[in-house]
Amino acid sequence: MNPIRNNKAATGMRRDKRLQPHTDDSYRAPLRVMSGTGCRECGAVYENGRWIWSASAEVTKQLLCPACRRISEHAPAGELWLQSCDYLMPRLDQVVSLLSREAQNEEGLHALERIMDIDVQPGGVRVTTTGPHLLRRLAEAMLRAHHGKLSIEYRDGERVLHARWSHDQQV
Ligand SMILES: [Zn+2]
């Protein structure tokens, strides 16, 4: 599928039905998870219906939290594509540290929102996240700091939120 197809309609930060997943998110469903459950991988704790960072919570059971499951199963919830161009490539270090900083702040607030991978490929940079909120935050941070164009959408039948950022060649 051509990722650029719906660009015009989805450009900008509009939040409409394209930003709703088509199906329930099985990674986030709280089925059978009890308060007092901790993640054996990252230490997040499930309390009162959500996964949080807690130094004081009493952990009585252990399993993998949804974010660690996504990481181990290579199943991102969000994918940000930064289109390679003459603007982006010389600023790659700057961009990566911006994204890392944003991710750190988001992860502090929401334990399940993390960057999975920042993969520099020949045509651009693929950034994957464990949660859709972080994806939006990263994409919007790119717009704020580096301008350019942004589209965010769920593609038909997919659970992964896709964002695509590009910069005009004329800098
Ligand atoms: Zn975990």
Question: How would you characterize this protein structure?
Answer:
It comes from Paraburkholderia sacchari. Residues 1-25 are annotated as: Disordered. This is Glutamyl-tRNA amidotransferase. With 171 residues, the protein is of the alpha+beta class. It folds into 2 domains: 7-25 and 75-166; 37-70, no CATH class. Helix content is 26%, strand content 25%. The chain has 4 helices and 9 strands, in the order αββββαβαββαββ. A 5-stranded mixed beta sheet has the order 6-7-5-9-8. The chain has a 4-stranded mixed beta sheet with strand order 3-2-1-4, with no helix packed on it. α3 crosses α4 (132-146). The protein is elongated, with a radius of gyration of 17 Å. 32% of the residues are buried.
What are the bound molecules? zinc ion
Q: Distance N terminus to C terminus?
A: 29 Å
The total count of helices amounts to 4
Low-confidence stretches: 1-15
Into which percentage range does the β-strand content fall? 25-35%
Number of strands: 9
In helices, the fraction of residues equals 25-40%
Strand order of the largest sheet: 6-7-5-9-8
What is the N-to-C order of secondary-structure elements (H for helix, E for strand)?
Answer: HEEEEHEHEEHEE
Short descriptors:
171 residues, alpha+beta, 2 domains, four-stranded mixed β-sheet, 4 helices, 26% helix, elongated, disordered N terminus, binds zinc ion
Question: What is the topology?
Answer:
Elements: H1 7-10, E1 37-39, E2 45-47, E3 50-52, E4 61-63, H2 66-73, E5 78-83, H3 92-109, E6 115-121, E7 124-129, H4 132-146, E8 149-154, E9 161-166
Parallel strand pairs: 1-4, 5-9
Antiparallel strand pairs: 1-2, 2-3, 5-7, 6-7, 8-9
Helix pairs in contact: 3-4
The structure holds zinc ion.
